[in-house]
Structures are given as C-alpha cells and as structure tokens.
Amino acid sequence: MGLSVVRDLHEVRAAAGLEEIERFETDVFAGFVLARCAAGLSDNTIRSDVSHVEQVRTWFGKPLWDMQPADADSYFGTVLRPVPIPTRLARAQAIRTYFEFLELRHKIEIHNLTGRIVECPIDEINRPRGCAKAKLRIPPAAEQIARLFAGWRGELATCRKFGPVARNHAAARLMSEVGLRVNEARHLDLADIKWDLGRFGKLHVRHGKGARGSGPRERMVPLINGAGRTLRWFVEDVWSQLGDDPARVGAPLFCSERRNADGTAARVSSETLRAVWPRLRSGICRNGRRV
After folding, report:
1. 61, 69, 216, 223: which has the fewest C-beta neighbours closer than 10 Å?
2. 51 vs 93: CA distance, rounded Å
C-alpha cells in the first residue's frame, strides 16, 4: 500500500485578496439563506435568522468565520448583557446555525482562502443560558364572550361606518365560534359557504395552515356554535354594502372598502382583521366595563 502526504489543515496558507473574500462571503451568505429556504422554514424565521447574523457581523466588522470564543465572550457578555434573555438565546442559536452551515459546506474553501479553520465561537462555556417562561393563558368563559359581543353588537347602531364595523364584528365572531385563523378567514370566498352540507352547513377553508411548511391545506369546517346565524346575517344584511356581484367567481366573503383595478371588491387585509384582536384580548366594551 502506497503512502501519501497528509497536510495539517491548521497550516497557514497565503490569504486571498480583500475583494475575493468579500465576494466569497456574499456568496456564502446567499447560500445560507437558500439552504434555510430549502429546509422549509417560513420567511419570518429566515428573516429573523438573517437579522441576527447581520447584527453580529456589523458589530464584529469582519467575516464571522474569523470570530473566536473570546469575541463571543465580549459580545454576549457586554453588548448583549442588558438585552432580554429570549433575544440573547435567539441570536446565539442563529450564530450556531450559521457556523454549522459554514462547517458543513465551506470549511475547506474558507481554509484555502484564509488559512483559518472554521469553529463556532459559542461553546458550552459561553453559550447563553436561560429559558422563556411559559405564560398560562386561561380562555374567557362563554358568558364573558357573549357579553363582549353583545356590547360590540350594540355599537353597530351608532358607528360612523356600519359596513366595515359589521364586517369586523362578523369576522371576529366567526373566528371565535369555529376556530379559524386570521389568514384563513380573510381568504374565504362567498362561495365557500356550503349551506346544504351537514346538519349546520360547512365552510370550505381553502387556505388552511399547513404542517411543517407543507403549504396550505384545505378542510371543511362545520358551522357550529351559531356560526351559521352569524354568516347568514352578514351575507344578507351587510355583504352587499361592501361586495359587488355575489355570482362573481372569487368574490371574497370579507371585502375591503377598497376596490380592485377592474372595479370589483378587494379582499380585506390580514392587518385589518388582526387589528380587531387587541379589542377582544382587552375585553373592554364601549362603556368601559371589563368582561
């Protein structure tokens, strides 16, 4: 069996030029984002990881593969010392994930360019400790919810714009009665109400939340807990004030005051429906009584 020369990876080689390293760092970071997308993570999760890594990179002032444990000690022990524990934990995890990517994908390339061995600067000694305390959330009783919506319903007679307020009331009540998410409710079409299915009628939820990034999943939701009465009142008495043609394919159930370029009713935004929930969480009616 022949022998071959084995070179120690810690042997220092001539470093590449500054421009070449900058281009390589940009390509590596783009590859990190693409790899996280390939893993099926949501855009918000990827955006959060990228933000954490970029903030550490800005503080360090050099490519992160040059970061040593002493640098991490200085950053997490001084710069992030007053920062809340969840932020420190999230930033440390983002850095560990980024260095795992570097070690798996680019360890040899980085050594060839810079002569450095990629090693995560966050170890068992300086890794931020702590955990977020779980908050016990007790759902309100049925009597409290009924009192809240009764007070809200009373405001419909004196509100300045009946259509939008009644739409928000109906959407919030529908989400409360059948357990829809905001994004699921806003994507409902008028034709998704199946009055003749089952004992109470059903909703065809076409944009249901997927599991582990699998994409939207459709499901049928029965109109229980009085949801059928809520929808029937909304469709018969309110929808025409915001919608256009009920026979139009794709006519949204919860319409915005705005119109599309072709004059048809636009779909209400998720921000508009989410703005309703602080009111529900606070549990305050118009007369100031907390329910």
Report:
1. 61
2. 12
